[in-house]
Amino acid sequence: MLDWEDETPFDKLHEECGVFALYGHPEASNLVYLGLYALQHRGQESAGIASSDGRKIHCMKQMGHVAEIFTPDVLNQLPGSLSIGHTRYSTAGDTAIRNAQPLSVACSKGQVAVAHNGNLTNAIELRRELEEDGSIFQSTSDTEVVLHLVARSRERTLAGALRDALLQIEGAFSLVFLAQDRIIVARDPHGFRPLAMGRLDMPDGTVATVFASETCAFDLINATYVGEVEPGEMVIVGPEGITREHYTTPEPTAHCVFEHVYFARPDSLVFGTAVAESRERMGRMLAQEHPVPADVIVPVPDSGVAAAIGYAAESGIPYKQALIRNHYVGRTFIEPSQAIRDFGVKLKLNPVRHLLEGKRVILVDDSIVRGTTSRKIVRMVRSAGAKEVHLRISCPPTISPCYYGVDTPSREELIAANKNLKQIQDFVEADSLAYLSLGALNKSVKDSENKYCYSCYTGKYPTLVQIDELILAKTGCC
Ligand code: AMP
Prior knowledge:
This protein has two domains: 11-251, Glutamine Phosphoribosylpyrophosphate, subunit 1, domain 1 (4-Layer Sandwich), CATH 3.60.20.10; 275-328 and 339-448, Rossmann fold, CATH 3.40.50.2020. It is built from 16 helices and 25 strands. Helix 9 (275-289) runs antiparallel to helix 15. Bound molecules: adenosine monophosphate. Adenosine monophosphate binds at residues 262, 300, 303, 365-374, 406-408.
């Protein structure tokens, strides 16, 4: 039994995930597999696919990467023309398979599976109420709360029960549901996390409908981007066609700006805006705001590449790939003994000495979280012969945790929440350090109507946030 006074039932409150859904293709699960393959960067811990053959829902999920899990044999066990999928990432805590998604259950509304990107901010409270009322939870994922709410709803149809559930949950959610004969997707009224809609025209003239966290997943399967599932919208795709409805009253839009800063792939459209372009604008504005005489611009791959291209274009200083990333470092790596643990970042990055030796280097990265990786990289560049190392960051200082689905550590561990600019510069051992201003970030994502959430940079949250019984005041998004 959990002690509610001092323990949260959720091992992982901040989940970074990718979701994909498809209706109306004979090889639905194969296409969902390809979609998840393109969304692998959004979560590397576990992956899962559920499909419906019209009568029964089939679900396969495992720890690991999409390509390792979904062999042809596994995909053969996922028949049907409608399917959803999920990739999940978590850095700490419970890595158990029971938290892998989709979650699939049989309830009074029939068989249903769900996959979720985001984080519910009232999940603790809802779970307590549900458990007091007799619900038995099988996972420690906040997503399960949604299924219990659906199962308990007095509404007769799944769509009605879902509407009921959606009105009770708060926070960030881009949800994809699979029922025997339909796909239902929904997005929270603030639109924190992305959810794009697309179509796939087939040779026989029929059209499949697809949904994905990012449009790079559409490109791989030749689907066309149609637009966004709107904040507060529910889209039902079934035998009768497509129904779109707003299930709740509008709230101020609060798209996660960190999707554009770091999380999304640069070849995606996120919230309808091209990520590569917004990152390049961040780099250009960073060069305008924080110039420094230098010989080369070097990105920290891959996260700093697009901003470094922008910085180089704006400053006229040559761009050099002087840090080479090994893309194959990952799960197969066995934790080294203490004696060789210091390899650390060297496993992933190697400096190109002849591009750095004797040079004044501007190192561009997207963000500093704890500062420990940045310090290792600055040291690495200096030890490869750089004369000066100037660190430029393409977003403002990260001072506050995210409660809407991005994995940021607690305030105590965020270096910018505890040190001033000079102290951070000293910590990372850079000759100079500068961050992009909030105003420039706002311009980079073309947010003239203030439709983004910047809470990790301002500490102002657009919703009530309930973590470990702590209620933070509703402060309004900037
Ligand atoms: P550190 O210097 O230890 O704070 O690490 C900074 C690096 O972490 C940067 O290269 C970022 O791209 C990367 N980073 C920032 N946010 C995240 C996140 N939510 N998940 C994984 N990596 C991140």
